[in-house]
Design brief:
The complex is a heterodimer of chains A (574) and B (158).
Chain A lengths: L1 H25 L5 H33 L6 H34 L1 H4 L2 H29 L7 H22 L12 H34 L8 H24 L9 H35 L7 H4 L3 H23 L7 H34 L11 H30 L3 H5 L1 H34 L7 H4 L1 H27 L10 E6 L3 H11 L2 E6 L10 H10 L4 E6 L5 E5 L4
Parallel strand pairs in A: 1-2, 1-3
Antiparallel strand pairs in A: 3-4
Helix pairs in contact in A: 1-5, 2-3, 2-5, 2-6, 5-6, 5-7, 5-8, 7-8, 7-9, 7-11, 9-11, 9-12, 9-13, 12-13, 12-15, 12-17, 15-17, 18-19
Chain B lengths: L17 H22 L10 H13 L3 H5 L4 H6 L2 H5 L8 E10 L2 E11 L7 E13 L2 E5 L13
Antiparallel strand pairs in B: 1-2, 2-3, 3-4
The chains are: A mainly alpha (574), B alpha+beta (158).
Chain lengths: 574, 158
C-alpha cells in the first residue's frame, strides 16, 4: 500500500515536473528568477503538505485505535507528532507567503507552478482518500476488520482534498492558468477506472450467480458475497468521484487537448480494449470446447469464466459507447484531428488483435504440419482456439477503419496525410512489427546456425522455431504492407499543399495575449519574446496570423514594428 | 415563428431513449440475478457419499480447520499427514470446486474435482487445476487416502 502510494507520488511528481518544465520553456517571456522561485515555493509547499498530512494521519490513527499504546505505536506517535509539529507550521508559513504574492500579483495565479501545485495536491489527496475510504467501507460491510489508519487517512486526506478543491474553485487566489483543467480530468480518471473495476465486480457476481442457478451449484463455492460487497464499496465511492469530477465539471468544460486525451485514451481506448479482450476470451473458451483442449470435462465447469467475460464485455462496451457518444454530441461534434486520432487508435487495437491472432494461428499451423508431434496434451488445437477469435475480431475492426483512412488520403485530404495521428500510427506499427520480425529472424538464424555447426540439424527444428517463424511471417507481412503505405504517402506528398507553419517565434512589445491568439488561429506552437525598444500600437492579431499562414515555411520568426508592419522571417536550426 | 439568426435555441437536445431503456433493463437483470444468487442454496452432497466427503474435506481445508480436515483422512493417511502438514501447504484464499466425475468400484472411489481460483486484479485470469481424490471405505464410511490436495509430500512419522 505504502509502496503503491510512493510510486503514485513519484509518478505524479515526475509528470508534474515535465509539464512544468515544458510550460516554463514555452513561457520564455517569464522572468527566469520568478519561475525558479515559484517552482521552489510550490515544491516545498507540496512536500510540507504531504509530510503534515502523513504526520496528522499517524496521530489520528492512534487516537482512533481501540488498542492500548504499545512500543510500535509509541514510535508511530513520535514520528507523527514530529512531522505534524514541523511540517504543519512550515506549510502554513509557505501558504501565507504564497497567498500574499497571489493576492498582490494576478500573474502569479496564472503561473504554471501554482496550477501544478493545486492540481497535484487535489489529485494525490483524492487517490489516498479513496483508497482509505474504500477500506473503511469494507469494514462497514463486514469484509475487513476495523483499521484506524484507514479511517484516519480517509479523514485527513479527504479534508485535504476538500480544502484544495475549494482553493481551486472558490478561493480568491484560485489558479487561472490553463493547467487547472487537469484537476477534474485527473479526478474523472480516478473515478472512471474505479467505477469500471467496481461495476465489473458487481456484474460478474450477478452473472455468475445466474450461471450457477442454471447449471447447478459448485461443490464448494468461493465467498462470493464478499466479492459483491467489496465491488459495491468501490463502485459507490467511484460513482461519487466520477459524478463530481466528470458529470459536474469536466463533461461541460471546453474540449482542450487534455480533455480529448482523457476521453480518447481512457474512455474509448480503455473500453475498446476491455471489450476486445472479453470477446476474445468468450470465443476462445467456446472454441477450446469444440476443437481444443478443454479445461474440464463438463461443459458447465469449462464455461465458468464466461459470466465474468460477459460482464467485462458489457462494462467495457458501455464505457466505449458512452465516450463515443460524448465525443459525437455536444457543442463540438467529433471532427478533424480528434476524429482521426479516434479512428487510427481503434484501427491500432484491431491491428494488434489481428496480428496476434494470425501469429497464434500460424503457430498452430506449423505445429500441425511439423514432422513430429509436440509435447503431449497440446497438439495445436488450443492455439487455434485462441487465434481464431482474435483474428475474427481484429481483422474487421482494423479493416473498416483503415479503409476509411485510406479513402480520405486517396481523396486528397492533406490534413490526414500529414497529420500526426496517421504518422504516429504508421511509424509505431513499423517500429513494433519491424523489431519483432527482426528479433524472430535472429532467433531463427541462431538456432539454424547452431544446429548446422553442431551437425544436429534435422526436421524437428521446425517445432522448436514455430513461434519465431510465426512472428517473422505475421509481423513481417504487417511491416511490409505498412512500409508500402509510407512510401505511397511520400510519393503523393508533393501533390498536396505544404504543411502550415508549426513553430513561431513572435517578437513584439506585449506578446502574451497576442501569442495565445495567434496560436489559436494558426494551430502553431508560438513562443513569445518581448521587444523592449519598440512600443507597438494596437493591431489586428488576424493580420499576424494571415502573414504566418501565407508563408510556406514551418519555422518563422515574426516581428512587429512600431507602425504595425508584420515581418515573417523563415529560419532553420543549424 | 421563424427562428432568427442569433436566437438561442433553448430546446433540450434530442436524447434517444432506446439505449437508456436497454441499459436500465440490463441493470435490473443484473440486480435480479444477484438477488436470486444470494438466495440460492449451496450444493450439499450426501455426507455419506464420496463426493459428500470430498466436499466436507474441502470446506474444512478452505476454512483452515485443519483438525477437521484430518478427520476425513483414512487412518493410514492421517498418520502420515497430521494437521501440521496442512499448515505448511499453500491454500489459496478463494477457491471454487466443481465436481467433474465420481466413480465407485467396490470399496474404492475416485472423485475428480476442478479447482479454480481467481488471479487478482485481472477478472478474466484464473488458475485452475483438476485434482483426483481417492477414497477408501473404512468403518462404514468413505475416507480420503493418499495425499489429497493441497497436501503434496506427507512423510511417515518416525
Amino acid at each position: 500500500m505504502i509502496g503503491l502510494l510512493g510510486l503514485a507520488l513519484v509518478a505524479l511528481a515526475v509528470t508534474g515536473a515535465i509539464r512544468l518544465g515544458r510550460r516554463l520553456r514555452r513561457d520564455v517571456d517569464d522572468d527566469r528568477d520568478h519561475s525558479l522561485r515559484r517552482i521552489m515555493h510550490v515544491g516545498f509547499l507540496f512536500i510540507a503538505l504531504v509530510s503534515a498530512a502523513s504526520g496528522l494521519t499517524r496521530v489520528l490513527t492512534l487516537a482512533l485505535s481501540p488498542r492500548p499504546m504499545a512500543g510500535a505505536s509509541a514510535e508511530d506517535l513520535a514520528l507523527g507528532l514530529s512531522l505534524t509539529v514541523v511540517a504543519g507550521p512550515v506549510w502554513v508559513g509557505l501558504w501565507l507567503a504564497a497567498r500574499r504574492r497571489l493576492t498582490a500579483d494576478p500573474q502569479e495565479r496564472h503561473s504554471a507552478a501554482w496550477s501544478t501545485y493545486v492540481v497535484g495536491a487535489c489529485t494525490v489527496a483524492l487517490i489516498v482518500a479513496f483508497v482509505n475510504l474504500a477500506q473503511v467501507g469494507a469494514w462497514l460491510l463486514a469484509i475487513e476488520e476495523f483499521r484506524a489508519s484507514a479511517l484516519a487517512g480517509g479523514l485527513v486526506w479527504g479534508a485535504t482534498w476538500a480544502g484544495h478543491t475549494w482553493l481551486l474553485e472558490r478561493s480568491p487566489v484560485a489558479p487561472t492558468g490553463p493547467l487547472r483543467v487537469l484537476t477534474p480530468l485527473a479526478g474523472s480518471a480516478v473515478g472512471l477506472v474505479a467505477l469500471t473495476v467496481g461495476t465489473i465486480g458487481i456484474a460478474s457476481y450477478a452473472l455468475t450467480q445466474a450461471y450457477r442457478a442454471l447449471t447447478g451449484p459448485a461443490l464448494v463455492e468461493a465467498a462470493t458475497t464478499e466479492q459483491l460487497r467489496q465491488s459495491l464499496v468501490v463502485a459507490l465511492l467511484a460513482t461519487a468521484v466520477w459524478w463530481w469530477h466528470w458529470l459536474l465539471r469536466a463533461l461541460r468544460a471546453s474540449r482542450t487537448t487534455a480533455w480529448h486525451v482523457y476521453v480518447l485514451v481512457l474512455g474509448v481506448l480503455g473500453g475498446a480494449v476491455l471489450a476486445v479482450v472479453a470477446t476474445t476470451v468468450i470465443g476462445q473458451t467456446g472454441l477450446q470446447w469444440l476443437i481444443g483442449d478443454p479445461a474440464a470435462t463438463r461443459a458447465a465447469t469449462h464455461f465458468t469464466v464466461a459470466p465474468t467475460a460477459v460482464a467485462v464485455l458489457l462494462v467495457g462496451g458501455t464505457v466505449w459507447w458512452y465516450h463515443d457518444r460524448v465525443l459525437r454530441r455536444g457543442p463540438d461534434p467529433l471532427t478533424g484531428a480528434p476524429l482521426r486520432v479516434y479512428q487510427y487508435m481503434i484501427a491500432g487495437v484491431g491491428l494488434v488483435a489481428a496480428t496476434s491472432g494470425v501469429t497464434v494461428l500460424l503457430v498452430a499451423a506449423i505445429q500441425a504440419v511439423g514432422p513430429t508431434p509436440l509435447a503431449a496434451g497440446d497438439p495445436g488445437g488450443g492455439d487455434a482456439a485462441a487465434g481464431l477469435p482474435l483474428t475474427a475480431i481484429g481483422v474487421p475492426l482494423w479493416g473498416v477503419l483503415w479503409r476509411r483512412a485510406q479513402q480520405r488520403v486517396r481523396a486528397g485530404d492533406p490534413a490526414d496525410l500529414h497529420g500526426a495521428p496517421r504518422r504516429v500510427y504508421l511509424f509505431a506499427t513499423l517500429g513494433v512489427t519491424g523489431l519483432t520480425a527482426a528479433g524472430g529472424l535472429v532467433a531463427v538464424l541462431f538456432v539454424v546456425l547452431r544446429d548446422l555447426l553442431e551437425t544436429s540439424l534435422d526436421a524437428t527444428i521446425v517445432n522448436e522455431l514455430r513461434v519465431a517463424l510465426a512472428l517473422v511471417i505475421s509481423c513481417g507481412a504487417v511491416f511490409t504492407y505498412h512500409w508500402t503505405v509510407v512510401r505511397h504517402d511520400r510519393a503523393i506528398a508533393p501533390a498536396t499543399p505544404r504543411p502550415r507553419a508549426r513553430r513561431i517565434l513572435l517578437v513584439c512589445s506585449d506578446g502574451k495575449a497576442l501569442a495565445d491568439d495567434v496560436a489559436r488561429r494558426t494551430g502553431a506552437t508560438v513562443r513569445c519574446l518581448h521587444r523592449l525598444d519598440v512600443q507597438t500600437a494596437e493591431f489586428d492579431p488576424g493580420a499576424v496570423a494571415d502573414a504566418i499562414l501565407a508563408s510556406p515555411y514551418e519555422r518563422l520568426v515574426v516581428t512587429i514594428d512600431r507602425d504595425g508592419t508584420v515581418t515573417a522571417i523563415p529560419y532553420d536550426v543549424p | 415563428m421563424a427562428t432568427r439568426v442569433g436566437d438561442i435555441d433553448k430546446r433540450r437536445p434530442e436524447r434517444p431513449l432506446l439505449p437508456w431503456i436497454v441499459g436500465g433493463l440490463v441493470v435490473v437483470a443484473i440486480a435480479v440475478a444477484a438477488l436470486a444468487g444470494a438466495l440460492r442454496e449451496p450444493a450439499n452432497a450426501a455426507p455419506d457419499s464420496p463426493e459428500g466427503v470430498v466436499q466436507a474435506y474441502l470446506r474444512a481445508v478452505l476454512s483452515r480447520d485443519h483438525a477437521a480436515a484430518v478427520g476425513y483422512l483414512s487412518e493410514e493417511a492421517a498418520r502420515r499427514c497430521p494437521a501440521s502438514a496442512f499448515r505448511t501447504s499453500w491454500v489459496p484464499e478463494d477457491v471454487t470446486a466443481d465436481l467433474e466425475e465420481v466413480s465407485v468400484n467396490g470399496g474404492e472411489a475416485r472423485v475428480r474435482v476442478h479447482l479454480q481460483t481467481p488471479v487478482a486484479p485481472l477478472p478474466l485470469d484464473s488458475q485452475s487445476s483438476t485434482e483426483l481424490f481417492l477414497l477408501v471405505r473404512e468403518d462404514d464410511a468413505w475416507r480420503l487416502t493418499g495425499e489429497p490436495w493441497p497436501l503434496t509430500a506427507c512423510t511417515e512419522p518416525s
